Amino acid sequence: VIKTAIQKAVDFDYKIATADTLANRCNMCHVQTQALVAGELTRKLIDYNSYASDRSTIANMITTIQQTSGSIDDQGGIYQHQQTALGMWALNTWHNPAEIISTLAKGVKYHMANQSLDGSWYYDYYWEAWWAYPAAQNSLILKSMLDTVKALKQAPAGSAKSYTTTPLLSTSLVASASALTIDASGKMYIPSNGGGVYSINPDGTSQ
């Protein structure tokens, strides 16, 4: 009976998180992260393989918005501390940490660089009372830091790579990053503030 309830709950979470990811094209930090945690922590109790597509969609949404700083952020820095806290917490439940070891290493460096002198972490999501207290941040960040240390110890030496990102377009030129599309050739299209459309070739050049 308990196993059935868990299966139904994970099924609900995955459907909502996947639909929101595909429809909104943004990291809705309370949705993807918590759905990923639910599915990963219960993987031995559910029909895990049947959610491969949903799981990849959700995890990729979180990992692909990591910035050069290590923050997990797709809102231009507005909620980067909160998104990183939730993102790292979720990614550290991933069934194969070696697959995302570079992301984990980069994220933990971001946490270390942004810790306050009193030991807390600044919160930047004020709309929910739960996130308006440093202790709430600390619990998530400390858990993910401990898990990242464990993952790094188990990973082959040198497997955590350092990558940098290069902006393809200035955000001031873009009307909405959530409307970005891509065709079969790999060319991306995104609406401009002037009412037109920018196209970005696979080699990074734009027009």
Describe this structure in words.
The protein is mostly helical. 44% of the residues lie in helices and 5% in strands. It has 6 helices and 3 strands, in the order ααααααβββ. Strands 1-2-3 form a 3-stranded antiparallel sheet, with no helix packed on it. α2 packs parallel to α4 (80-91) and α4 crosses α6 (134-154).
| Helical run tally | 6
How would you sum up the global shape?
globular
Mean pLDDT figure? 86
Q: Which percent range fits the helix content?
A: 40-55%
Compressed to H and E, one letter per element, the order equals HHHHHHEEE
> What is the structural class?
mainly alpha
Q: Compute the CA-based radius of gyration.
A: 18 Å
Brief summary of the model shown:
With 207 residues, this protein is mostly helical. 44% of the residues lie in helices and 5% in strands.
How are the SSEs ordered, and which strands pair?
Layout: H1 2-24, H2 32-41, H3 52-63, H4 80-91, H5 101-113, H6 134-154, E1 181-182, E2 188-191, E3 197-200
Antiparallel strand pairs: 1-2, 2-3
